[in-house]
Amino acid sequence: MNQTSQRLFFGLWPSAATADEIMAWARDAHALCGGRMMQAEALHMTLAFLGNTPEDKVHELVQAAPGWTVPVGTLQLKRFGRFAGPRVVWAGPSSEDGERVPWLDDAYASLWSHLEGAGWERPASVFRPHVSLLRKAGPCELDVLSRPALSWTPEQCVLVASRPAEGGSRYEILVRLPIRH
Ligand code: 3AM
């Protein structure tokens, strides 16, 4: 297929072992809310959604991104949440400072300052870190769900192409960025 653009995003990717642990959260949420469960290999935390990107820009990113180091620490997934518009149910992090995780905000800011240097525009919306668990979920009372906190030190920050596929999107990792602990 002759592609003229690719739908791109940057995200933090869990190891297979952590993804398995996150799937226990997805199963709990699914039993309550229905919808479509994410596949273990597709679980991630989006840092920057770029959307449809022309091939010349994809090429530029693939060249530049291996030089961008993203600071990474450990977070605790502690709560379930829901975005009503896209009907997404997610797992969200907390820290001793509340719902913000300082290193995660730093990772977001660091990635976006690299992207701005490459001509991309940082979104005006607030960064709401989350790992999507369900899509097309029904309305549900998430307060009844609780799980022990799940500790996650992301092993990878990646540039991903999202391609339409049967039953959802298929993600292909294009570039692995260096991370700094
Ligand atoms: O990582 P999650 O599942 O939260 O919802 C889309 C998915 O987020 C999000 O980018 C990730 C990879 O597709 N996304 C899709 N369209 C978007 C948009 N217009 C978007 N994020 C922001 N703006």
From the structure above, extract its key features.
181 residues, alpha+beta, 5-stranded antiparallel β-sheet, 3 helices, globular, binds ligand 3AM, EC 3.1.4.58, hydrolase, Cyclic_Pdiesterase
Short summary:
A motif (HXTX 1) lies at residues 44-47. The protein has 181 residues and is an alpha+beta fold.
> Mind describing the biggest β-sheet?
5 strands, antiparallel
DSSP strand tally: 11
Q: Note the overall shape.
A: globular
The strand order across the widest sheet is 2-7-6-5-8
How far do the termini sit from each other? 39 Å
Main structural class: alpha+beta
The helix/strand series, from N terminus to C terminus, equals EHEEHEEEHEEEEE
Helix count, DSSP H or I runs of 4 or more residues: 3
Identify every distinct bound molecule in the structure, by name, code or SMILES. Answer: ligand 3AM
Give the low-pLDDT segments.
Answer: none
Proportion of beta-strand residues: 35-45%
**Percent helix among the residues?**
10-25%
Q: Please state the CA-atom Rg, rounded to the nearest Å.
A: 16 Å
Catalytic activity: a 3'-end 2',3'-cyclophospho-ribonucleotide-RNA + H2O = a 3'-end 2'-phospho-ribonucleotide-RNA + H(+)
Function: Hydrolyzes RNA 2',3'-cyclic phosphodiester to an RNA 2'-phosphomonoester.
Active site: 44, 130
Motif (HXTX 1): 44-47
